[in-house]
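Input/output pair, single chain:
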Amino acid sequence: MIHRVLSILAHPDDAEFLCAGTLIRLRQIGWEVHIATMTPGDCGSRELSGDEISRIRMEEARMAAAKIDGTYHCLDSRDLLVCYDAPHVRRTVELIRRVNPDIVVTHSPQDYMLDHEFTSMLARGACFGAPIPNFHTGASPAAVPTARIPHLYYCAPIEGIDIFGEPVPQSLVLDVSSVIESKADMLACHRTQRDWLRAQHGMDEYLDAMRRRAAQVGARRGMRYAESFRQHRGHAYPQEDLLGQLLGSDAG
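Output:
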């Protein structure tokens, strides 16, 4: 039986910052990995046009996913315009039906920018809607409804805080020390963003920031590097902590 994980995040490189270590560990135990972004990152450059930077950043995302034999998907929204409306919901449900994941990973419901928060809402709503036969996505051909609601997990925000500077609770911490260099290799594929920050800071701030954050999360649990999550356990969603069972966890 094939098991699949799908990350649905806002922009190219979000997965590499927030959850790539976990995706790598799942791949190591035989899971199929899918990485989706709501946008192609069209506002991610001061020099290139939206179309040019989108093309480059999608290729960077494909290269990063390929590092772990993963598949990249783009839902073709635009930066700063991700919202909870009918077209976004239909596209997100169609993606979940096509991939048919056991686990979905998305942004925290409380995050520093609205693209992230709306992506979180869309992933949550689409997980619930994917099994409903009477919900039609309008795709041609359309994928069949899934048999179940997948397990849903929220990544910790970049700094672990909400818009008021308060810590966002996490229920699951996963050790990614053994795969931190593979995580860095995936992040390094996003050269347009890495080079821009390297020029700005005079150092490899892009990769250093990822390692610092993973080290901060890990230090609280006696791990060198870690990623943290919170599971969605609302009515009708799976209740068992599948990620924790698979990869080992430290709760709280």
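The chain is about 40% helix and 15% strand. The chain has one domain: 4-232.
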